[in-house]
Design brief:
9 helices, 2 strands
């Protein structure tokens, strides 16, 4: 990578980080706005990618709108403003998909429904869980409501894992991790990412002593491991559809889906870790 591309990647990376920090640290409404936009963009890129060769029977605009409605309904549930919105939107979404399978006269209609549901599971569900995580975690830290501590830790661990794996892998990587999916990833980078992420967890243990160093190290390891799985999984999707990047929104990085791929698998794993060992 030449210096110009490296500077472009660094500059857009800083802007992305600032946007994420705004969403995380700005409070629950800032979270809702920032990650709602990220959700919409991620769904758009995903459905556009799977429609690369032909338009599917189920409109991507329909899926994006319902993804946003599901995301909003989770917020309403957590804020105790509506306990009915989430089950209603889920049921309406499923009923429309079932009706589409019957009414749309296309042989690939079932494929469209499968892609529709998978997109919601792959993107909408993890980002909704990210919101749930901030509300579930707070019982041990605050009196109630939104708390950004686990979200900040999650993003910092992912960023450190990705950065360490990229640079150490580029400089010293000789052994391919899973070459048929991502030829550039190395075993050396993978190990370095985990080690640096676990070291960074000690900073959280220092600044947030409500939880032990062992807790933070376990959390960091889970995020690093499953963040790598998320990165590899998105690489598999792109390889399947023969695309280099999911989009072009972030110069030097690709699309928004290329930036949150690690996050999408790390979130469910992190949440499971916390409900098993903490909450």
């Amino acid at each position: 990578m030449n210096l110009k591309n490296l500077l472009t990647r660094a500059g857009t990376g800083v802007i992305y980080i600032l946007v994420i920090l705004l969403g995380v640290l700005g409070g629950r409404f800032s979270f809702l706005a920032v990650f709602g936009i990220i959700l919409a963009l991620g769904l758009f890129e995903f459905y556009r990618m799977v429609e690369k060769d032909t338009s599917h029977a189920i409109s991507k605009i329909f899926n994006i709108i319902h993804g946003l409605l599901l995301f909003l309904s989770v917020f309403l549930f957590l804020e105790r403003l509506s306990y009915l919105a989430l089950p209603i939107f889920v049921l309406v979404y499923l009923l429309i998909l079932f009706a589409s399978a019957i009414l749309i006269r296309r042989q690939d209609v079932l494929h469209g429904i499968i892609y529709s549901v998978f997109g919601q599971m792959y993107i909408t569900m993890p980002l909704s869980l990210l919101m749930v995580l901030s509300y579930s975690y707070q019982d041990r830290i605050t009196a109630g409501g939104y708390d950004w501590t686990p979200l900040l830790a999650l993003f910092v661990f992912i960023w450190i894992n990705d950065t360490a794996a990229y640079f150490i892998g580029t400089l010293t990587g000789k052994h391919k991790l899973i070459s048929h999916i991502s030829p550039k990833k190395s075993v050396e980078g993978f190990i370095a990412g985990i080690l640096f992420t676990m070291l960074s967890s000690l900073l959280f243990a220092h600044f947030f002593p409500e939880f032990s160093s062992l807790h933070w190290m376990g959390f960091a390891m889970v995020v690093a491991l499953f963040g790598t799985v998320g990165d590899l999984f998105e690489s598999l999707i792109k390889r399947t559809y023969s695309v280099k990047d999911a989009g072009t929104l972030i110069p030097g990085h690709g699309g928004i889906l290329d930036r949150i791929d690690s996050l999408l698998v790390a979130i469910p794993a992190a949440y499971l870790y916390l409900i098993l060992f903490l909450i």
